[in-house]
Amino acid sequence: MSSVPSSELRYQSGFGNEYASEAVAGALPQGRNSPQRAPLALYAELLSGTAFTAPRHQNRRSWLYRRQPSVVSGRYQAYSQARWTTGAERASALAPEPMRWHPLPLDGAETSGADFIDGMHTLAANGDAEAQVGIGSLMYLANRSMERRAFVNADGELLIVPQQGRLVITTEMGVLHVAPGEIALVPRGVVFKVALPDSDAGHGASRGYVCENYGAQFHLPELGPIGSNGLANARDFQAPVAAFETEPGAYELIKKFGGHFWIAPMQHSPFNVVAWHGNLAPVKYDTANFMTIGSISFDHPDPSIFTVLTSPSDTPGTANCDFVIFPPRWLVMEGTFRPPWYHRNLMSEFMGLVHGEYDAKPGGFKPGGASLHNSMVPHGPDQEAFDKASAADLKPQKLDNTLAFMFESRYRFIPTTWALQSPALDTDYADCWAGLQDTFKP
Ligand SMILES: O=C(O)Cc1cc(O)ccc1O
Ligand SMILES: [Fe+2]
């Protein structure tokens, strides 16, 4: 990729703004998108991530100026990736139980020789990609970089949350370096590949979480009374600068299309975009830049104050998916039980832990694990957390060195058969609440 050393990597700042970048000076047409002959004998190609007629504030599209248009590729054949399923599997009734998975093993059969695509596993999903509704909650376990192999997803955008191992995400629009603690968002239809520099250097497998969003694109939440600053600030999102590969030779392009996988040979690199402009772009974001807001008086606020990105549904305020983080923060609430309350919610909650401890489950929820509390399934702090927080001296306390997150959806998540049969399923999860005795003192 015009091999850019990471120290020289540059990014464009912002979320959903009009970016513009050229890897070769003069490659971007000026004053129009589609001149009779594009500069430098490039082909102009439009990539739209929304309908042409989507309202202006939601409309996302970019113009790519490339050495050959995307349509130049070999024919597609079926490709097998049985662990990456799409949408809700409804084969059997699902018990209304809280569910949890231990960290998926990094040295298991799933990982060996797998790259980011082959190592993807759907744990739970809802909705239907054809209907452009719902999300999948996935985990990748991989130890091999994608080299002359690229991927494109027609079924949704991918929100990538690395948990172990850095990622180098080469996209048509340039390169993103993404480390645990950071996230990346790759729009539907953008071709990319993922290299695993830590795995390549012998530091073991790479693992992380992915939200495959079949619905409306993620955008920043409204801030309401918070005002014009705070939470994830648009400025802290980083889009790549244009870069293209120069090495000749063949590629494989894997495509996810209608829940099925396809593979086509290409005689050239799909990373051949010399310049681009527009507001549809992959981005990365460092969660360390999240301006966290909390209660400075009393009570535990709703976790919606931790929303980084939201994918709306057609019911206002009732998201297809909210991406919510639980970052390091101070707890200062007075006269308050500080961890999450016991609760039953309309919304369904899939959670993961990047590192550290989660305050509602200090022992049982491990980095690389996952939990699922579907709509109206009761849950809350485990006994250890309840006992500690009920007796705690309420001086200011820093929850440090931690990053949990939640994919929260209005639609119930259906775990996959693979996830239900996995040895990582924590069949004793509900025991963490079993000791909460009736201590009523009338
Ligand atoms: O269940 C959970 O751990 C997630 C969560 C956290 C919180 O602070 C409030 C509500 C909620 O669902
Ligand atoms: Fe919850």
SSE topology sketch:
Blueprint lengths: L10 E3 L5 E4 L20 E6 L12 E6 L10 E3 L19 E3 L18 E6 L9 E8 L6 E5 L3 E8 L2 E5 L2 E5 L3 E5 L5 E4 L1 H4 L5 E8 L24 E3 L10 E7 L2 E7 L6 E6 L4 E4 L20 E5 L9 E6 L2 E3 L16 E8 L14 E4 L9 H9 L5 E3 L3 E7 L4 E2 L1 H5 L21
Parallel strand pairs: 9-17
Antiparallel strand pairs: 1-16, 2-19, 3-4, 4-19, 5-18, 6-25, 7-8, 7-28, 8-15, 10-13, 10-15, 11-12, 11-14, 13-20, 17-18, 21-22, 22-27, 23-26, 24-25, 24-27
The structure holds 2-(3,6-dihydroxyphenyl)acetic acid (OMD) and fe (ii) ion.
The site of 2-(3,6-dihydroxyphenyl)acetic acid has 8 residues, from loops.
Tell me what you see in this structure.
The chain has 442 residues and is mainly β. 4% of the residues lie in helices and 33% in strands. The protein contains 3 helices and 28 strands. A hairpin with a 2-residue loop joins strand 17 and strand 18. The longest helix has 9 residues, at 383-391. The chain is globular. The N and C termini lie far apart (71 Å). Bound molecules: 2-(3,6-dihydroxyphenyl)acetic acid and fe (ii) ion. 2-(3,6-dihydroxyphenyl)acetic acid binds at residues 303, 340, 343, 349, 360, 373, 379, 406. Pfam families: HgmA_C, HgmA_N.
Structural class: mainly beta
Q: Specify the CATH architecture of one domain.
A: Sandwich
The residue fraction in helices comes out at under 10%
CATH superfamily of one domain: Jelly Rolls
**Shape descriptor:** globular
Cα-to-Cα separation, first versus last residue: 71 Å
Task: Please write the CATH class name of one domain.
Answer: Mainly Beta
**Beta-strand share of residues:** 25-35%
Cofactor: Fe cation
Keywords: Dioxygenase, Iron, Metal-binding, Oxidoreductase
Protein name: Homogentisate 1,2-dioxygenase
Family: Belongs to the homogentisate dioxygenase family.
